[in-house]
Amino acid sequence: MGLLLLLLVAAILTTACDRVDNREHAAGIRRVVSGTPAWIGRSALDRRVWAMERAFYESREHLPAWIDGTRPTRQMEALLEQLRGAPTHGLDPAQYGLDAIERVHTEAKGHFGVRFDAETVPALDARLTYAYLALAADLLGWRTRPAQLSPHWQAAPTKEDLAARLTAAVRDGRIRESLEELAPVHPQYRGLQAALAREREQPTGQADRIRMNMERWRWAPRDLGDRYVLINVPAYVMQVMEGTSAVLSMRVIVGQPDWPTPLFSDEMTHVIFSPYWNIPENIEREETLPQIARDPDFLLRNNIEVVGTSGVVDPWSIDWSDESTVSTLRFRQRPGPANALGLVKFMFPNRFSVYLHDTPSDRLFQREKRALSHGCIRVSEPVALARYVLRDQPEWTEARIQQAMHARQERHVKLKRPIPVHIGYWTAWVGPGGEVAFTDDPYGVDRAHARLVDAGRRS
Q1: pLDDT digits over 102-131, tens only?
Q2: Which of 25, 62, 152, 357 is catalytic?
Q3: Is the dihedral of CA 431, 434, 435, 439 positive or negative?
Q4: Residue spans per domain, the chain
Q5: Which residue of the set 89, 152, 376, 422 is catalytic?
Q6: Of 28, 277, 281, 416, which has the fewest Cβ atoms less than 10 A away?
Q7: Is 357 an annotated catalytic residue?
């Protein structure tokens, strides 16, 4: 009984000694954030995170966020759990200084719980804030940019005011939720998380590849739409998604390595039946004009019109040796079964002039590797896709779609509601049963990504 009373008195005295006004830490925190501690990284993102941290502490008059007096708060414990769980997102806790934080935390443990030396509080609190912000930035995919892997990858980074998010999370006790909400929720990302967990238990040598593909999902828009078209270039597959379910799937042909399909997001707005093929300038310059020079009947045989500034021009009236005249001409292939675009194209107007379309060369869909086009995406089941995108226009029956496709007269049909289109590059693709297939890498993106990861590890 006497021992119990003694311990109780000691606990009361210890608690009384712990009562430190948090304002006493403000001057120390201000000194820490006014400089650049050695544990701040050297990348542009690290500098950006440090600027966010300064703004965060400025907004709270440099009061500590994670420590109350000399004791850890629940928010601190929640943050440590999230840092320890970073590998579930394919991220390295060492990036956030977890070892050093854990060491200070362990050394502060005593008979009556964790109590930090008052002098260590400012630097520790600042380091915890940096860890939160850096982890949050990585969950948003800010660590690397798609353009670092390919100039043809255009993805706007997810916007987020992380200082404001942290302020709200500390205030509301939502540290765990505030971080988990930043990660993608797409079934493919969740599937890759599960695959990475299996890889840690039974390694197959694919862990880095899985992590890289998780990073690519972090570059994708968080809101893909309630229904959307998803094209995975290296898997040569297109899916129409409704929520988390693929309601339509088909093979596609994508751009060859010298004419890569750009990677971006846009919205499908209309369908063109029996389309003309307006030959792009680069194909015109590199293929069409040389063909005309070698074979005068090339235009007639391929059903190609010559278009001048005043309309269609008789090709026999043109002086093909006059470069100034030829430079004003454009070429288009008339609608028909031999048209390079097939019988229908699906338009999502973009600066790359890329779209989905039919093709007269159906046999190419039987190939395993289908990086064969000049950048546009050929679909194996154009009628099924047309039926889906026009399904809220009941007058467009399959019979009418077939008729319009074979009419040899171009017709534009506007969609009642635009459909988001997302073109991405994932070489680890999760199947319906949770299994992961590792795909072709036609554009060498995996190699470029691996070099970038290695460079980051060495820095």
Answers
A1: 999 999 888 778 899 999 999 999 999 999
A2: 357
A3: positive
A4: 17-180, 281-333
A5: 376
A6: 416
A7: yes
